[in-house]
Specification:
Oligomer: single chain
Shape: flat
Number of strands: 2
Strand content: under 5%
Helix content: over 70%
Number of helices: 13
Distance between the termini: 47 Å
Largest sheet: 2 strands, antiparallel
């Protein structure tokens, strides 16, 4: 056996390693430039007072100031309330509509087409629509509420402490509910119809079929929606800011709104980056718990 024959497997191995590195390095470079460096830079800024003009190292002082401020828990609660309510209602409404459309009823294709329209509309247009609908003077919703005796006088939804957050949440669900709808509809249409037929022959009720067939097949999609949409809405800024500017009386001030206020209204970039850092660590912790508890990779494997 020649020496070249013996060394050929090692040469092939080196070629594969080189190809792997050539494929892997651009990906590492991309994530380093657009993900790792900005995060490290922002976390570094959070350790300084006035980091953009006259940096003064304060360590964790900015974090301590934020965590001990009287309003931090309110901003955190608003963020969690907004993210959870919009995510859950989007999921429930999206699932209900997906189940209806999946039955191939008359007009289902029209409903499917209509569901994408709110998602395509610019956020500013959506805000104008719902400010008009909720308007206390000419809004249709207030007219209906007064006409049917639900309330005695119109409600200024976006400028009332009790109603500002529900109004913003309703606006968000209307715009983003189609996200859950299309994911769940695609998953429903992938379920084998023979499973339902077999269950019906064996005497299963519609509820039992839904519980034992539909929900298990949708579990992976539901978990993905909860994670992705929950993180997205926790970080949402534009729809709240354009609706209420975080008011009234901080009733809709979430952590992203507060980051903006600290950075551009109070010119406190150290505090703003510290607040953003707290958001990052909170969401990272939630993601770790999510993957540990729900193990979505097993859903993909199945």
């Amino acid at each position: 056996m020649s020496t070249s024959t013996l060394t050929r497997p090692f040469a092939d191995l080196d070629e594969r390693r080189l190809l792997l590195w050539l494929t892997f390095l651009p990906l590492v470079a991309f994530f380093t430039l657009v993900w790792a460096i900005p995060i490290v830079y922002a976390l570094g800024m959070s350790l300084f007072a006035d980091p953009t003009t006259a940096p003064s190292f304060v360590g964790l002082g900015n974090y301590a100031d934020i965590l001990t401020s009287g309003d931090f828990l309110l901003f955190l609660w608003n963020s969690v309330l907004y993210a959870v309510s919009t995510t859950v209602f989007s999921l429930v409404i999206g699932l209900a509509l997906a189940l209806v459309v999946n039955q191939e009823i008359r007009g289902g294709s029209i409903l499917r087409t209509m569901m994408i329209f709110p998602y395509l509309l610019p956020t500013l247009v959506v805000i104008f629509i719902w400010q008009f609908l909720f308007d206390p003077n000419i809004g249709v919703i207030n007219q209906w509420l007064v006409q049917y005796g639900v309330v005695e006088e119109p409600i200024a939804f976006f400028s009332t402490v009790e109603w500002a957050m529900p109004a913003v949440a309703i606006t968000s669900v209307w715009k983003f509910g189609s996200f859950a709808f299309f994911i769940l509809l695609a998953r429903l249409q992938a379920i084998d119809p023979n499973l339902y037929e077999r269950a019906r022959v064996e005497g299963a009720s519609p509820w039992q079929s839904f519980r034992d067939i539909t929900i298990p097949h949708l579990r992976g999609a539901i978990l993905i929606i909860l994670l992705v949409r929950g993180i997205w809405m926790f970080n949402k800024f534009d729809i709240i800011y354009l609706s209420t500017r975080g008011g009234p009386l901080n009733a809709t001030t979430t952590l992203p709104i507060r980051v903006y206020e600290l950075a551009f209204n109070e010119v406190n970039f150290g505090g703003a980056t510290a607040m953003a850092g707290i958001m990052f660590f909170l969401l990272a912790g939630v993601a770790v718990v999510y993957f540990k508890v729900f193990e979505p990779e097993k859903e993909v494997a199945h």
